[in-house]
């Protein structure tokens, strides 16, 4: 006790529960908790941002190749001998285009190789040609240079997505061929080639024989205007190397190529594990170096309907289908939703019945969307007998799904209009209906619109309810009306993701990108409406 | 605003009712198996391109779902064709008949079911018995039926690699699963398991070694790429299209190649069918054109475009018979 007094006397500040050491520790702890929370929050946001960036960047990088398509320009013979101007529909345009292509490679004679060569151009070539001739009959009567889309594998190869192809490297020794076509022997001036083949997965045999099977990288030697694919190598006399090879493109002559005159190209991906053969690669490179292949903006993707061929598949059918479906959804959900909201908010008596209705509307907003699809199947298709796969049914189902969202948003914005507005209108003699439609509704409109647009955006991204009513289908023709079979954007994405062809991977990403753009635009409109017209009291 | 609301709802109503009185359908509707879907869509597109008829609409509903829609009855609101990755069942045919539907059966080709893994994984040579032991829910050990105890492939057979058994496959709703169970699990079933439970052969283990990967075969392909130790079970067309990433494994010593499946050497293959509704021929335009296109050599022949899509053609003689039956619209059970 005396100690305490003494210490007071020494001029120390009085110790209270707010300033003693325990309190300081508590304070420190509180600050620490706050800092922790701040950091955790920031980390959560950063993580979410990281995932978003990751997601978007994967989609965008995957989608970019789909925005362009490679075209091959061929001299197409449309003279009267080939095309009968009176019977344009009966002409086999595919055959004419394929003839123009095979004429570029007179060396290709075997049936199988010809088939491979014909596969370079898209199977839709004939259809494009027929359409273009119908639009411009002036093309007829002579030979025209016409750009045809390349097949999906050729296209993917040119985009660098199918095989790792090294650049041409000059061979620093002489190369002597035994023949200019067929299976030939090549003699290299030194044995550097042997080590190179070993490094690329060649199989060792007897007497230093190295075999390049289809499981090894492909070694192609280009000289004298032709290309030879090496199949086996063995050491020759005087430190030379002898290779066996198959000529893919005929050589001009059997003259030896001097050091630096021949070029080696290594395709690292073995032929067995890629969807494009060495021959096709050589052909494509020849066409490319001749300046016949051109990469263009992929208008097919944006302006045509679905297809089973990746190079012919387009998104336009799905965009039109989405648009038609959304029109029906809006035409049904908006008037009914707003009317219901006005009635419930402004006119309905507050009793047990309206409370039950209110609770159920809120519950409806949480019902899984597939349930609406089942309802659509049972009621619209089976009971009313409406057509399958039609936007009108899809729109009705989605309208049912968006209704509760619109009602809830509309009621909230009607409620936000201050009672003074209603009282003033009533006060100067307006009827109840006049009050609502002349004064309350216009003020609530921006909020209602925002809710509606968000509800529509939600509906635009739905697939599940449409599964049941047949809109998840392969539909090629672009829908022309509300009862034509149609599909919508998310369904198109879902279906492309399921197709086995590699070319559809890029298309899927590109379609996702387009859907995202639509959603961003719709959300932006909602934000702008809110910013510009919303009034606060 | 009031006017707007009124006109909008009137328009919506008019729309809804007018749809009920739509003009007669002029476009073929096809439903059914997701395995046959890629081939039927190719034929549909080809036919649409030729400009003869409007491009048929093809839905992928699964074989069972397709049969249900197909056999529902005759009329504009029912499907004209159904795809099937197995032959129609007696019960389904009965329903069809009861509803006045006469199906015309057309066998269009074969599909192999393959066991594959990533190119980065090991190559194995399996027998059906080994696959059964690795995947069955109950197996016989020393004459007693027990819950599958095998964790690694090497537990099944010492010659197999010592990696964990991890197989991605289709769910029970899939026709591929039905066929896999029938061709592998039932075929290689152990006597003890069969004796203990008549349906025990088809039961696949649920302890995590077999993962149901959904109907999306592309998803299986992507998962296999990411995990070299996992195996996948799917249709040959996916192996064919992803030959750069995946390798198929021998089953009973036969490699799953186009030639082996076509010749019937590869044991795990099944037949694919389409069924046409005889009553709709002449009513819905294009029915006969569609059948003719599907059964043309340019489509289902060995050099046809369906072969490029992974369909394995029937032998020449069989193709000729089916094409003839299809042309004559030979209905089933009549």
Automatic annotation (TrEMBL), chain A:
GO CC entries: plasma membrane
Keyword Manganese carried by entry: no
Gene3D superfamilies: MetI-like
Pfam short name (any one): DUF3333
Gene name of this polypeptide: pstA
Membrane-spanning residues: 36-60, 315-344, 364-384, 390-409, 453-476, 510-529
Top-level division of the source organism's lineage: Bacteria
Identification of the protein by name: Phosphate transport system permease protein PstA
Membrane topology: Multi-pass membrane protein
Subcellular location: Cell inner membrane; Cell membrane
InterPro entries: DUF3333 (IPR024573), MetI-like (IPR000515), MetI-like_sf (IPR035906), Phosphate_PstA (IPR005672)
Similarity-based family: Belongs to the binding-protein-dependent transport system permease family. CysTW subfamily.
Molecular function (Gene Ontology), one example: phosphate transmembrane transporter activity
Residues in ABC transmembrane type-1 domain copies: 319-526
Keywords (A to Z) from UniProt: Cell membrane, Membrane, Transmembrane, Transmembrane helix, Transport
Keyword Glycosyltransferase attached: no
GO BP, sorted A to Z: phosphate ion transmembrane transport
Database matches in NCBIfam families: 3a0107s02c
Automatic annotation (TrEMBL), chain B:
Superkingdom: Bacteria
Domain PBP: 18-297
Keywords, sorted A to Z: Signal
CDD domains named among the record's database cross-references: PBP2_phosphate_like_2
InterPro entries: PBP_domain, Phosphate_ABC_transporter
Signal sequence coordinates: 1-24
Keyword Signal carried by entry: yes
Protein name: Phosphate ABC transporter substrate-binding protein
Organism this protein belongs to: Mesorhizobium mediterraneum
């Amino acid at each position: 006790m005396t100690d305490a007094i003494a210490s007071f006397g020494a001029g120390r500040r009085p110790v209270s529960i707010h300033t003693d050491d325990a309190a300081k520790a508590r304070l420190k702890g509180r600050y620490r908790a706050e800092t922790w929370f701040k950091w955790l929050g920031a980390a959560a946001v950063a993580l979410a941002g990281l995932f978003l960036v990751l997601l978007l960047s994967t989609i965008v990088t995957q989608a970019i190749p789909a925005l362009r398509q490679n075209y091959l320009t061929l001299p197409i013979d449309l003279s009267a001998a080939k095309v009968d101007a009176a019977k344009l529909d009966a002409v086999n345009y595919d055959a004419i285009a394929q003839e123009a292509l095979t004429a570029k490679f007179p060396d290709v004679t075997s049936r199988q190789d010809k088939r491979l060569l014909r596969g370079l151009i898209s199977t839709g070539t004939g259809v494009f040609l027929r359409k273009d001739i119908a639009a411009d009959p002036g093309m007829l009567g002579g030979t025209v240079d016409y750009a045809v889309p390349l097949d999906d594998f050729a296209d993917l190869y040119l985009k660098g997505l199918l095989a790792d192809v090294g650049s041409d490297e000059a061979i620093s020794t002489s190369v002597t061929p035994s023949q200019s076509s067929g299976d030939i022997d090549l003699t290299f001036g030194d044995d550097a080639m042997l080590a190179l083949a070993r490094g690329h997965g060649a199989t060792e045999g007897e007497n230093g024989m190295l075999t390049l099977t289809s499981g090894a990288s492909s070694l192609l030697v280009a000289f004298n205007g032709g290309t030879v694919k090496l199949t086996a190598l063995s050491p020759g006399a005087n430190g030379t190397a002898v290779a066996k090879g198959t000529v893919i493109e005929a050589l001009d002559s059997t003259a030896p190529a001097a050091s630096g005159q021949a070029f080696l190209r290594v395709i690292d991906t073995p032929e067995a594990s890629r969807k494009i053969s060495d021959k096709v690669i050589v052909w494509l490179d020849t066409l490319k170096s001749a300046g016949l292949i051109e990469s263009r903006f992929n208008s097919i993707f944006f302006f045509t309907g679905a297809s089973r061929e990746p190079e012919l598949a387009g998104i336009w059918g799905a965009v039109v289908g989405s648009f038609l479906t959304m029109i029906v959804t809006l035409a049904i959900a908006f008037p009914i939703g707003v009317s219901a909201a006005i009635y419930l908010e402004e006119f309905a008596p507050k009793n047990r019945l309206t409370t039950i209705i209110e609770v159920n509307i809120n519950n409806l907003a949480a019902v899984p969307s597939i349930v609406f699809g089942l309802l659509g199947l049972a009621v619209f298709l089976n009971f009313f007998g409406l057509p399958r796969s039609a936007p009108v049914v899809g729109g009705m189902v989605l309208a049912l799904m968006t209704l509760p969202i619109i009602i809830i948003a509309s009621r909230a914005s009607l409620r936000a209009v201050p009672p003074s507005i209603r009282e003033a209108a009533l006060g100067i003699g307006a009827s109840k209906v006049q009050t609502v439609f002349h004064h309350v509704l216009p003020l609530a409109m921006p909020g209602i619109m925002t809710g509606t647009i968000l509800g529509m955006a939600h509906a635009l991204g739905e697939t599940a309810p449409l599964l049941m009513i047949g809109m998840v289908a392969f539909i090629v023709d672009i829908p022309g009306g509300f009862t034509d079979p149609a599909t919508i954007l998310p369904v198109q994405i879902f279906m492309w993701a399921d197709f086995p062809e590699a070319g559809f991977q890029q298309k899927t990403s590109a379609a996702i990108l387009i859907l995202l753009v639509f959603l961003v635009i719709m959300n932006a409109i909602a934000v702008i409406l809110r910013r510009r017209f919303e009034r606060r009291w | 605003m009031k006017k707007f609301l009124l006109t909008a709802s009137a328009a919506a109503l008019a729309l809804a009712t007018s749809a009920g009185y739509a003009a007669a359908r002029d476009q073929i509707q096809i439903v059914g198996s997701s395995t046959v879907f890629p081939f039927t869509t190719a034929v549909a597109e080809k036919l649409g391109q030729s400009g003869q008829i409007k491009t048929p609409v093809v839905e992928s509903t699964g074989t069972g779902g397709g049969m249900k829609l197909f056999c529902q009855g005759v009329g504009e609101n029912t499907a004209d064709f159904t795809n099937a990755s197995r032959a129609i069942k007696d019960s389904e045919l009965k329903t069809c008949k009861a509803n006045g539907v006469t199906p015309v059966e057309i066998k269009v080709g074969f599909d192999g079911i393959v066991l594959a893994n990533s190119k980065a994984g090991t190559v194995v040579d399996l027998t059906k018995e080994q696959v059964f032991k690795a995947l069955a829910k109950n197996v016989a050990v020393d004459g007693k039926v027990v819950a599958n105890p095998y964790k690694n492939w090497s537990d099944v057979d010492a010659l197999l690699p010592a990696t964990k058994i991890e197989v991605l496959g289709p769910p029970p709703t899939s026709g591929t699963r039905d066929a896999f169970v029938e061709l592998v699990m039932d075929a290689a079933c152990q006597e003890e398991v069969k004796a203990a439970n008549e349906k025990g052969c088809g039961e696949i283990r649920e302890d995590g070694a077999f993962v149901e990967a959904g109907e999306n075969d592309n998803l299986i392909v992507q998962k296999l790429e990411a995990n070299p130790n996992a195996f996948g079970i799917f249709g040959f067309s996916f192996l064919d299209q992803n030959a750069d990433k995946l390798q198929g494994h021998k089953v009973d010593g036969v490699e799953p190649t186009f030639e082996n499946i076509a010749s019937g050497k590869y044991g795990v293959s099944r037949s694919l069918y389409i069924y046409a509704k005889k009553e709709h021929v002449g009513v819905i335009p294009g029915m006969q054109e569609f059948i003719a296109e599907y059964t043309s050599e340019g489509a289902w022949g060995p050099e046809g475009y369906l072969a490029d899509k992974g369909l394995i053609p029937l032998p020449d003689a069989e193709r000729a018979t089916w094409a003839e039956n299809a042309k004559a619209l030979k209905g089933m059970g009549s």
